[in-house]
RNA sequence: GGGCCCGUAGUUCAGCUGGUUAGAACGGACCGCUCAUAACGGUUAUGUCGCAGGUUCGAAUCCUGCCGGGCCUACCA
């Protein structure tokens, strides 16, 4: 019965950003997986949070006339609100400014250092004061007077500062060996290829401390230095399960993580630096890093300058939360970039939700309400047709599970909707409205089979659309403790005679304002 | 420049360890049903499978070149 614990994480989001649809998308995918795993009998630890250190935050706080801690307290709240608005079921929300994280980050530093993988040197490069960034020699251009310029046109100067380095170059072979032995470590394949070729191209040691600003985690025993933000940030995944206390029950239970979900922009940090840091610290490596693609607004990348950034709260208020959750994971093949638009949103809501599954439930339950005195009818012997539909409902979990395990959410939903299609075809073929007059017993059996199919669908869509699923299951009088995947199948089938509430549509159609006029 | 991925019906995609008449969904057209949120079901249409060569008895599926699109090519997160 007890299945393996399952630990999954979102990236921690940089507080300087306002939460947008991209953040919502990443966490949504994790939420669906977390809910799925819980219903499937796993003990789940689902982590999200905020990354609150770095020079930009320091500056933003200054500009706002606040001390950095007060500033981050405020802006990190935006991300907690997002979790609330989107009905995320995260078990923890970590902030890198928390005490527990300071301890963990310093501990991993010490572990890496104790193993001889950190050395003090100096970091030198072309620095643009205006851009606050270093540039590689190859990126520079020459101005009219021969002055070296950044790609942005800003002047650069040669800057050297003392820095601790991580001996990343030594980890090239171990990493390649690890990728080779763990072909599922990075998904999808195209990202894996990129990472492998990046590492195979050679690795340089990594500067992992800064002295140019203060808002960060001090390097142990040398507080002039602040830890490199990525070493700081990545360690949050350990912090949340109790590290450095390796006797912490959460640590032994949940580490190594089963899945780090990330956007494709931060694959390298998770698939190269992070495993290297962990190997250097002598810690076990996560099992999988999955990088999803971008949501494109009608084909254009969302950006502040284009002014086409989609905010999750706007989508939710226009279309409703559960439809948005469904849409985002069904419309775009997870792992690819994909378009979102009003037109495709409406099409999904009306075709898939209102017409297919919503109407299936409504037509079935209405017939039960009208023709069976509003109670679950007593079925007779099942025919081959009945068994065909029921077994498709019973069997679908296995397929969906393997698709979700590969983060192929769009495929999992497609698979579920095959059952919806089977059920609608079954209704037409059986024509219970005709049986009402010719063979009421047979009608009762047909309606029972439909109700039982809807029970399965209701249970299975809970991870995607928790509220809508609950309303569906309520209409079948399924007890709250009878809604896990262990209740799928014939052993927990509906009990004839159970009184049902009056049916009400669960998925309303979306009608455009203008079209409605 | 180097590397990786992609280019298949109006649209989004599947198929791609080579093998019958190239598939699905949505959209379109037509038909059926009337239980239901005017929802459901059935039938049907359009594809030089980017282009040109090659390997093979046989290629959307393998190889080469070309065209087009995207991504990666390290220390801002």
Mean pLDDT: 91
Low-confidence stretches: none
Report Rg.
27 Å
Structural shape: elongated
The profile of the biggest β sheet is: 6 strands, parallel
Q: Fraction of residues in helices? A: 40-55%
Query: What portion of the residues fall into strands of 2 or more residues?
Result: 15-25%
Structural class: alpha/beta
Seen as an oligomer or otherwise, the chain set is single chain
End-to-end CA span: 55 Å
Structural description of this entry:
By secondary structure, this protein is α/β, with parallel strands linked by helices. The protein is built from 19 helices and 17 strands. The chain has helices at residues 21-39, 55-63, 68-85, 99-114, 172-181, 189-200, 229-234, 236-239, 249-254, 267-281, 312-319, 321-331, 342-371, 384-405, 409-430, 432-438, 440-460, 466-475, 513-516; strands at residues 6-14, 44-51, 92-95, 118-128, 133-135, 141-142, 148-149, 157-166, 186-187, 206-207, 209-210, 218-219, 222-227, 259-263, 289-292, 295-297, 338-340. The strands form five sheets. It has a six-stranded parallel β-sheet with strand order 3-2-1-14-15-9, sandwiched between helices. A four-stranded antiparallel β-sheet has the order 5-4-8-10. β6 (141-142) and β7 (148-149) form a beta hairpin. The longest helix is centred in the C-terminal third of the chain and has 30 residues, at 342-371. It binds one RNA strand of 77 nucleotides through α2, α6, β10, α7 and α10.
């Amino acid at each position: 019965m007890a299945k393996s614990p399952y630990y999954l994480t979102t990236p921690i989001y940089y507080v300087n950003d306002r939460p947008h649809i991209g953040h919502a998308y990443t966490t949504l995918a994790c939420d669906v997986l977390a809910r799925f795993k819980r219903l499937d009998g796993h003990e789940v630890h689902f982590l999200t949070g905020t990354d609150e250190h770095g020079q930009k935050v320091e500056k933003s706080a200054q500009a706002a006339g606040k001390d950095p801690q007060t500033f981050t307290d405020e802006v990190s709240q935006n991300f907690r609100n997002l979790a609330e608005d989107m009905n995320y079921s995260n078990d923890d929300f970590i902030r890198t400014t928390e005490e527990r994280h300071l301890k963990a980050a310093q501990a991993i530093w010490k572990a890496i250092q104790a193993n001889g993988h950190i050395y003090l040197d100096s970091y030198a490069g072309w620095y643009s004061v205006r851009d606050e960034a270093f540039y590689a020699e190859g990126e520079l251009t020459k101005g009219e007077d021969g002055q070296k310029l950044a790609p942005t046109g800003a002047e650069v100067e040669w800057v050297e500062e003392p820095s601790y380095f991580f001996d990343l170059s030594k980890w090239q072979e171990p990493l390649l060996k690890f990728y080779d032995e763990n072909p599922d470590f990075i998904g999808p394949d195209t990202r894996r290829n990129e990472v492998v070729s990046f590492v195979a191209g050679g690795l340089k040691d990594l500067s992992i401390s800064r002295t140019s600003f203060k808002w960060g985690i001090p390097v142990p025993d040398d507080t002039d230095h602040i830890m490199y933000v990525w070493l700081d940030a990545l360690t949050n995944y350990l912090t949340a399960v109790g590290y450095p206390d390796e006797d912490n029950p959460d640590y032994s239970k949940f580490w190594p993580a089963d899945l780090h979900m990330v956007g494709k922009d931060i694959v390298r940090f998770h698939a190269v630096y992070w495993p290297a840091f962990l190997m250097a610290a002598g810690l076990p490596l996560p099992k999988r890093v999955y990088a999803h693609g971008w949501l494109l607004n009608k084909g254009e990348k969302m950006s502040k300058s284009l002014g086409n950034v989609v905010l999750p709260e706007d989508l939710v208020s226009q279309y409703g939360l559960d439809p948005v959750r469904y849409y985002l994971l069904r419309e775009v093949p997870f792992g690819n970039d994909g378009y979102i638009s009003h037109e495709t949103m409406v099409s999904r809501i009306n075709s898939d939700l209102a017409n297919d599954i919503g109407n299936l439930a409504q037509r079935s339950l209405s017939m039960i309400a009208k023709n069976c005195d509003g109670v679950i009818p007593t079925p007779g012997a099942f025919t081959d047709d009945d068994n065909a539909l029921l077994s498709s409902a019973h069997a679908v979990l296995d397929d969906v599970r393997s698709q979700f395990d590969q983060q192929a959410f769009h495929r999992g939903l497609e698979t579920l909707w095959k059952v919806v299609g089977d059920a609608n075809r079954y209704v037409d073929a059986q024509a219970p409205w005709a049986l009402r007059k010719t063979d009421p017993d047979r009608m009762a059996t047909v309606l029972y089979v439909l109700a039982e199919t809807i029970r399965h669908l209701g249970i299975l869509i809970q991870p995607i659309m928790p509220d809508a699923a609950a309303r569906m299951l309520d209409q079948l009088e399924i007890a709250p403790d009878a809604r896990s995947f262990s209740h799928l199948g014939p052993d927990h089938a509906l009990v004839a005679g159970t009184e049902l509430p009056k049916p009400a549509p669960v998925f309303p159609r979306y009608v455009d304002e203008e079209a409605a006029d």
